[in-house]
Amino acid sequence: MKPRISMITLGVRDLAASIHFYEEGLDFPRMESPPGVAFFTLNGTWLGLYGRDALAEDAQVSKEGEGFPGFSLAHNLASEAEVDQVMAQALAAGATLAKEPQKVFWGGYSGYFKDPDGYLWELAYNPFAWIGPHDD
User: Fold this and answer.
1) Whether the predicted model's global pTM rises above the 0.70 cut
2) pLDDT band at 136 (very low <50, low <70, confident <90, very high)
3) What share of the chain is helix, strand, coil (3-state, %, to 5)?
4) Which of 34, 35, 64, 116 is deepest in the core (most CB within 10 A)?
5) CATH fold for the domain made of 73-125
6) Residues in contact with 107: Cβ distance below 8 Å, sequence separation at least 6, in sequence order
7) Where are the domains of the chain?
8) Which CATH superfamily is domain 7-59 in?
């Protein structure tokens, strides 16, 4: 197997609001998508948005569950200033601040926001290893 993540799908409560947040607020490029789902390109992978109940039904799991989902999504940036800029953009788009960007124990700089459904996004600058878009 060649390991890779082809798509990340988030189960969302309000599809239209989430589409607006990612497409208009964060400038994610939206792909043509069938009704009831939205896809965005992310430099080598896709982000999918799908109704939370419909996603649970599709996976044949319970739709019940709250609190910390046990994971976060990360967006690595080229500088501390970029972290601050993207955080400001996310907050202006309606995100909730979870952790103010700051120097962190491993030597980098990061902060977290929650999207409209509470999914955590880390914005990080890692001075030791640039991991980010390779086609910019």
Assistant:
1) yes
2) very low
3) 25, 30, 45
4) 116
5) 2,3-Dihydroxybiphenyl 1,2-Dioxygenase; domain 1 (3.10.180)
6) 127, 128
7) 7-59, 73-125
8) 2,3-Dihydroxybiphenyl 1,2-Dioxygenase, domain 1 (3.10.180.10)
